[in-house]
Write a structure and sequence with these properties.
CATH topology of the largest domain: Beta-lactamase
Largest sheet: 5 strands, antiparallel
Number of strands: 21
Number of domains: 2
Distance between the termini: 91 Å
Helix content: 25-40%
Number of helices: 24
CATH architecture of the largest domain: 3-Layer(aba) Sandwich
Length: about 725
C-alpha cells in the first residue's frame, strides 16, 4: 500500500470512528455519563442482557468415563474443555491482553482510544497486529455467534456492512457495558479464553494448549502463550504447524507488545524472538463411540441409553459439558476382548458376543465382540449385537421351563421316561421328528443330540440338557404360558421387530419355546440368569451410574430429581427359593462329569451355567453366573445362516472361562444359597406315548446330598 493510499484509508477510518463514537454516545446517553463511559443505570443495561450472556461459557466436551474413572470417549461439537481462572497460566492472560486489548483493566467495556490506536497500528503495519474491539466486546460477539440457533441469528452476530453492521456493533457495545457491570475483569477474561477459537479444531485455551503443545493451560510458557495469543486474529494464516514462518512473525509481534507494556524484559524479547516456533502437536481428543479408547459397543449402548431411556438429546451430549460415569469394568472388558479374539479373529463371519453384568444391580460390566465399532472396514459393525435379538439361544431356555415347573409344584426330583431319544408332544403342534406330520398327527416331536438315559429327573435333565425331558415337562405344564411369563419375570424381553411377542408365543402355544428357538438378545440372556444369581431379584440392565452437569452436580430431570435413579431392580421377581435351587442345580453343568458346560468350569468357583445350541447349530450359547457376576456368550453369523460347527459347550463356554478365570484370580466369590428341600421332591409324571410311566421322585437329592458332587459349589 502506498503512503498516499494509506493516508486516505486512515482518514476514512478516523472519520468512521468519530461517527461511530457519536452514535454510541447518543445511544448510551440515557444511561451513562461522566468522564469516560461509566454506567449510571445498570439495571437498564441488564434488562437487555440475553440469557446467553448471563450463563457461563459454553460447557464444552462431555466425558464418558469407565467405572474406575478412566476415559472411554468424549462427545462434542466443538473441542472445548472449560478451565477456571486459576487453571490458566498468568503469562497467557498477559499475552492475550497485550495483543488484543491493552487497556482491558482500565476501560468499562468500550475503548474508543484503544480502538483508534489499534486501527492506526494495523493500518501502518499493513496487517492485523492489535485487536480493535475490546475483549469484552469480542466475548459478546463470540457468545452470540456460538449460541445462535438459526441462520438469521448467525448472520446478525457477524454482519459487517451497512446499517446492519453498525447496528450489530452498537448492540455489542451496549452488551459489553452490561457485562462489565455484572462480572469481574478476571471472569470476563477467563470466559473469553474459554470461548475463543485458536485453530485446528481447538476452542478455548485448554484445548489449544493440548493441540499445539500437549500441555495444560496452566503450564504454558512465555513463547507458547505468545504464540497462542497471536492465533486469535487469524488462526489459519498464523498456524505454527502449517505456516511456521508466519507463526514466528506473529508470535514476535505479541512479544514486542508485551515488552512495550512492561510484561516481559528486553532480554526475554531478544532471546525468544530469535528462536523458531516450537510445537509438540497433540491429537484431537476422542469424539464419539467410533473413537472410544475401550468398549466401543458398550459406548454405543450407553449413548442409546442416555438418549433413549434417560431422555437426553444428542445436543446435550455434544455441548453440555456432562460427566457420564458408567459401569464399564475396564479389566473385564480387556480380558473379554482378548478372549473373543483368542477364539475367533477380528472380522470373522462368526461373531463371538460376550456380555457381562452384576446380579442385583443390573450394572453392565463388559460388552466384547470380535468386531470394531462404527467404521467402514470389513471387520466393523455398527449394530450393537449384544442387545439385538437375531438368533436363538437353544437350551438356555430350559431353565425358564424348569423354574415354571417348580413354581407349579412339579419338583426337581420329578422323573420322566422318554425312550428312544425322541418324544412327541401330547399338547403342542409342530414338525415331526421324521418330517412326516401325518405320522405324528401334526404333534411336535423332538430328539436328543447324542445318547441320553431314557429316564431322567429334572436335575439330570438340566445338567445333561435333555430335549425330550423338557418337551415332556412342558406337556406336564399344559401350556407354554408358564415358561414364557417366567422368562419375562427373570428379565427376558420379547419386544424387538425380529421377535415374536410374549403374547404371540403364548397364543400360538409354541412348544419349541423350551428349546430356545426364539430370537434372543445376549444382554437379556445374561440378565435373566443374573436374576437366579441375585436370589430372584430382577434388574433392568444399566450402563450408567450417574450423570453430572458442568458443575459436577447430578443432572436433574423435569421433576427436579437426579436423572439417574436407583430404581431399576425388582426384589423377588421370582421366588428366592426357586432361584437358589436352580442356581445350585446348574453348577452341575460346569462341574459334573455329565455337564454340557464343563469347559466353563473354574476350579474353586461354583459357576452355575447352561449351554444352548439352536436348530442346525445356527447359533450356540453359554450363560454362566456366580452370586457376584453374570455373563453370556453367543456365537453366530449375524448376516446369514451358518453352521457354527460346535455346541454351546465349545466356543461359548471356553470364551466365558478365558475371560472370567483371570478376572476372578484376585477376587473373592461366594456360593449360592442351598437348595430348598421342599422343591427337590418328585411326583407323578407322564410317560412317553407307548412307554412306561415315570415313577414318583424319591426326593433323593433334597438337602443337597445328591451323588454328583456339585451341591456345595464344588
Amino acid at each position: 500500500m502506498s503512503a498516499a493510499s494509506r493516508a486516505r484509508a486512515l482518514a476514512k477510518l478516523v472519520a468512521l470512528i468519530v461517527v461511530a463514537g457519536a452514535l454510541v454516545a447518543g445511544m448510551l446517553l440515557p444511561v451513562v455519563g461522566g468522564s469516560g463511559v461509566v454506567a449510571r443505570n445498570s439495571a437498564s443495561l441488564l434488562d437487555a442482557l440475553p440469557v446467553e450472556l448471563t450463563d457461563a461459557t459454553p460447557a464444552g466436551n462431555s466425558r464418558v468415563l469407565a467405572a474406575d474413572g478412566s476415559l472411554i470417549t468424549n462427545f462434542y461439537t466443538n473441542n472445548r474443555t472449560v478451565v477456571t481462572a486459576d487453571q490458566i497460566a498468568e503469562v497467557m492472560k498477559q499475552a492475550l491482553v497485550a495483543i488484543e486489548d491493552s487497556r482491558f483493566y482500565e476501560h468499562n467495556g468500550l475503548d474508543v482510544q484503544g480502538t483508534l490506536r489499534a486501527a492506526v497500528t494495523n493500518l501502518t503495519a499493513g496487517s492485523v497486529q492489535e485487536g480493535g474491539s475490546t475483549i469484552t466486546q469480542q466475548l459478546v460477539k463470540q457468545t452470540l455467534l456460538e449460541t445462535a440457533d438459526t441462520p438469521e441469528e448467525r448472520t446478525a452476530a457477524t454482519e459487517q456492512d451497512g446499517v446492519e453492521g453498525l447496528s450489530r456493533k452498537l448492540r455489542e457495545a451496549r452488551l459489553a457495558l452490561a457485562l462489565e457491570d455484572t462480572y469481574s475483569k478476571d471472569e470476563i477474561l477467563t470466559r473469553y479464553l474459554n470461548i475463543v477459537y485458536f485453530g485446528r479444531g481447538a476452542y478455548g485455551i485448554q484445548a489449544a494448549a493440548q493441540r499445539y503443545f500437549s500441555v495444560n493451560a496452566i503450564d504454558l510458557t512465555l513463547p507458547q502463550a505468545a504464540m497462542l495469543a497471536g492465533l486469535v486474529q487469524s488462526p489459519s494464516n498464523d498456524d505454527p504447524i502449517a505456516n511456521p514462518e508466519n507463526g514466528q512473525t506473529r508470535r514476535n509481534q505479541v512479544l514486542q507488545r508485551m515488552f512495550d507494556l512492561g510484561y516481559i524484559s528486553e532480554a526475554e524479547l531478544t532471546e525468544i524472538s530469535a528462536q523458531p516456533v516450537q510445537v509438540a502437536e497433540g491429537l484431537s481428543p476422542a469424539n464419539g463411540c467410533i473413537d472410544a479408547v475401550i468398549g466401543g459397543f458398550f459406548c454405543a449402548y450407553t449413548q442409546g441409553y442416555l438418549t433413549g431411556v434417560l431422555g437426553l438429546t444428542q445436543e446435550q451430549l455434544d455441548n453440555g459439558g456432562l460427566t457420564i460415569q458408567t459401569t464399564l469394568d475396564t479389566q473385564l472388558q480387556t480380558l473379554a476382548d482378548q478372549s473373543v479374539l483368542n477364539t475367533l479373529p477380528m472380522g470373522d463371519p462368526l461373531a463371538a458376543v460376550f456380555t457381562a453384568l452384576k446380579p442385583g444391580s443390573g450394572d453392565v460390566m463388559a460388552m466384547a465382540v470380535n468386531r470394531r465399532y462404527g467404521c467402514d472396514d470389513p471387520d466393523c459393525e455398527s449394530v450393537v449385537l449384544h442387545t439385538a435379538a437375531s438368533k436363538g439361544a437353544g437350551s438356555t431356555y430350559k431353565t425358564f421351563t424348569a423354574a415354571a415347573a417348580l413354581e407349579a409344584g412339579i419338583g426337581a426330583g420329578t422323573v420322566i421316561t422318554t425312550p428312544g431319544d425322541q418324544y412327541t408332544s401330547r399338547v403342542f403342534r409342530g414338525p415331526s421328528c421324521g418330517g412326516d406330520r401325518e405320522q405324528s398327527n401334526g404333534m411336535y416331536c423332538v430328539q436328543n443330540v447324542g445318547d441320553y438315559p431314557d429316564t431322567l429327573d429334572m436335575v439330570d435333565a438340566l445338567v445333561r440338557s435333555s430335549n425330550t425331558y423338557f418337551l415332556a415337562l412342558e406337556d406336564r405344564l399344559g401350556s407354554v404360558e408358564g415358561p414364557v411369563r417366567m422368562a419375562e419375570r427373570m428379565g427376558m424381553t420379547f419386544d424387538q421387530p425380529t421377535q415374536n411377542s410374549a403374547d404371540e408365543i403364548i397364543d400360538g402355544n409354541f412348544g419349541s419355546f423350551t428349546l430356545g428357538a426364539e430370537a434372543t438378545s445376549p444382554m437379556d440372556l445374561a440378565n435373566a440368569y443374573a436374576t437366579l444369581a441375585a436370589q430372584g431379584t430382577r434388574c433392568t440392565p444399566t450402563p450408567v451410574l450417574q450423570v453430572l452437569d458442568r458443575n459436577g452436580q447430578p443432572l436433574t430431570g423435569e421433576d427436579g430429581q437426579p436423572l439417574v435413579k436407583d430404581d431399576n431392580c425388582t426384589p423377588e421377581s421370582i421366588p428366592p427359593n426357586i432361584a437358589n435351587t436352580l442356581a445350585t442345580i446348574l453348577i452341575g453343568d460346569t462341574s459334573s462329569p455329565v455337564g454340557t458346560g464343563q469347559r466353563a468350569g473354574i476350579p474353586g468357583r461354583g459357576v452355575a451355567g447352561k449351554t444352548g445350541t439352536a436348530q442346525g447349530r445356527d447359533s450356540v450359547a453359554f450363560v454362566g453366573v456366580l452370586p457376584e457376576y453374570a455373563g453370556s456368550v453367543m456365537v453366530f453369523n449375524p448376516k446369514e445362516k451358518q453352521d457354527v460347527g460346535g455346541y454351546g459347550g465349545n466356543m461359548p463356554a471356553a470364551i466365558w472361562r478365558d475371560a472370567f478365570e483371570p478376572y476372578l484370580a484376585d477376587k473373592p466369590t461366594s456360593f449360592f444359597p442351598p437348595v430348598d428341600p421342599a422343591l427337590m421332591g418328585g411326583g407323578p409324571a407322564p410317560a412317553a406315548p407307548g412307554g412306561n410311566r415315570g415313577n414318583g421322585g424319591n426326593g433323593g437329592r433334597n438337602g443337597g446330598n445328591g451323588g454328583t458332587g456339585w451341591w456345595n459349589g464344588g
